[in-house]
Amino acid sequence: MVFDFLKRGDATQMAAQPTETKASATGPVIAYGGAGRVAWSPRDAVSLTKAGFAANPVGFRSVKLIAEAAAALPLVLQDDAQRFEVHPLIDLLARPNAAQGRAELFEAFFGQLLLTGNGYFEAVQDENGSVSELHVLRSDRMNLVPGADGWPVAYDYTVGARKHRFHVGEGASPICHVKAFHPQDDHYGLSPLQAAATAIDVHNAASRWSKALLDNAARPSGAIVYNGADGQAQLSADQYDRLLSEMESHHVGARNAGRPMLLEGGLDWKPMGFSPSDMEFQKTKEAAAREIAQAFGVPPMLIGIPGDATYANYQEASRAFYRLTVVPLVSRVTASVGHWLAGFTGESVALKPDLDQVPALSAERDQQWRRVAEASFLTDAEKRSLLGLPPLASDDV
């Protein structure tokens, strides 16, 4: 019958039902209509990368600056009792695969995360189930497959006509997906390139306009005007050729820079420059460059954008860059990667950046150590806890 599902089952049927599994109540809503199918990203990551990174110097420098600085931060591995100097995960991160070291691996990962809002690690396991290699997968080739509860059940990696599916089930996942916050997407992160897309278009259009100006209508530094006796006379062919020859030999080139010009009767020099509209266009380009840098969290001073006096000096800008952009990014990524890798070994370890070895943060780190060391009301164990250090062993107390 059609309405049989409304009837209450007997005790036997109720007892045979599986035990309820706790899960998010909104998961089935998120997965409605998309269970088992690929959740395609709503943005065109390839076009954004070409326009905002490969074809824009401000976006290129911002991504490189963040990725290189984040990949260069030293990392520490510790648990509740100690900080490890030797550990299989430390060896794995030091040489994740045959082609990359730790810095190259994380630079590629941070670059993908900044360009697309998503970063993917792949773990290659050996016959014992241990992770033997780590690889960074291109975000524009990866697509998430949600299940009935809204959580991913697989990841599809597509190259041309070929596709490989990474299944996510029981046990540790072969894929570690780190995504930036996106308020309107449940499965993918928001790239800074999307937030800065308008500024990137303005900056690229200004660059193309400047190039077209040089190609088609570039203004000379000035013009020599021949008035003649009645204001309408023209130079003869010999006079014109002699004037061009003297200009090229005495007033053109680096060796003649600044040499005064001697003009004969009837010749007048008219300097030319940028019009007010040209100057406003240049200011618009600089404003767009500043917006691109701000979207990535890079102080404009660090990438040479003129007219920015937000920071008192370069050192303060560098400190703000590390404290507000690099350190939060690295802390979030390493926490996810450490938890993911610990799932393969079953250990309770944490991976995090070692801020004591960051030169840009040395001044404020010294102040913190001094304040904690001078706090006489704290025990040594409390001081170590405040500084993020594991407690000492009983024989070291």
TrEMBL record:
<protein>
    <submittedName>
        <fullName>Phage portal protein, HK97 family</fullName>
    </submittedName>
</protein>
<dbReference type="Pfam" id="PF04860">
    <property type="entry name" value="Phage_portal"/>
</dbReference>
<dbReference type="InterPro" id="IPR006944">
    <property type="entry name" value="Phage/GTA_portal"/>
</dbReference>
<dbReference type="InterPro" id="IPR006427">
    <property type="entry name" value="Portal_HK97"/>
</dbReference>
